[in-house]
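RECORD TYPE: protein structure
NAME: HTH araC/xylS-type domain-containing protein
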Amino acid sequence: MCKASIASGKDITTAYAECGFGDYSGFYRTFRKEFGMSPNEFKNSSEKIKSR
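PREDICTED:
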């Protein structure tokens, strides 16, 4: 759900709050462990794909 929120263009702070994280650092660690990249790296890569 968080990944989809970020890919849809939502702000990362909105996405982590909607996913139940209380702070960015916990969200960042969990996201990086799960997907192998930071939330910002994911957002940037999904924006590049959309612009093609």
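COMMENT: The helical segments are 2-7, 12-18, 24-35, 39-50.
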